[in-house]
Structures are given as structure tokens and as C-alpha cells.
Design the sequence.
């Protein structure tokens, strides 16, 4: 994913009011649900998400496969899973 696409998409998702959960899928297949704007920070093509247990997950725009406009438990390919992936 390009820096521009990453920044534009993240900015749009983080500023929606009321906030709506979304999912970041990395190239490894791991998915992280952003269910609150305080669990993630993004700048200049990089980000950090605090996974369950407060574990920080660092990534950059090149490691993002897609940003899905729905929570992880409702994202395509997650049939019936309701727990955030760590």
C-alpha cells in the first residue's frame, strides 16, 4: 500500500464521527481491530496498534494488505470469530 493511500484511508477512518470500528490486515494475514481511536496512532506511513493485553504492534504502510471498513469479527474471512486477533 502506498504512503498516500495509507494516510488518506487511515485519516478518513479515524475521523469518522461517531467513531466506527475498522480492521487493519497485515501482509502476514494478521488482523487488528481498531475499536477505539485511543488504541492506535499513525503518522507518515507508520502506525502502532495496542493489541489485547496492551501489546504494541508496530507496522508501516508496506506491511498493510488492506484496511477493512468493519470490525475484525465482521470482516470478510472471519466467519463467526468475535475475538480480536493478537
Sequence:
Amino acid at each position: 500500500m502506498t504512503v498516500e493511500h495509507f494516510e488518506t484511508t487511515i485519516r478518513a477512518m479515524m475521523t469518522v464521527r461517531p467513531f466506527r470500528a475498522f480492521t487493519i490486515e497485515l501482509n502476514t494475514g494478521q488482523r487488528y481491530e481498531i475499536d477505539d481511536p485511543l488504541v492506535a496512532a499513525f503518522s507518515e506511513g507508520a502506525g502502532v496498534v495496542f493489541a489485547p493485553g496492551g501489546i504494541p504492534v508496530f507496522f508501516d504502510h508496506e506491511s498493510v494488505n488492506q484496511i477493512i471498513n468493519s470490525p475484525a469479527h465482521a470482516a470478510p474471512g472471519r466467519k463467526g470469530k468475535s475475538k480480536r486477533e493478537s
Remarks:
- Strands lie at 22-26, 31-34, 40-43, 46-51, 55-60, 64-68.
- The chain has one domain: 3-71.
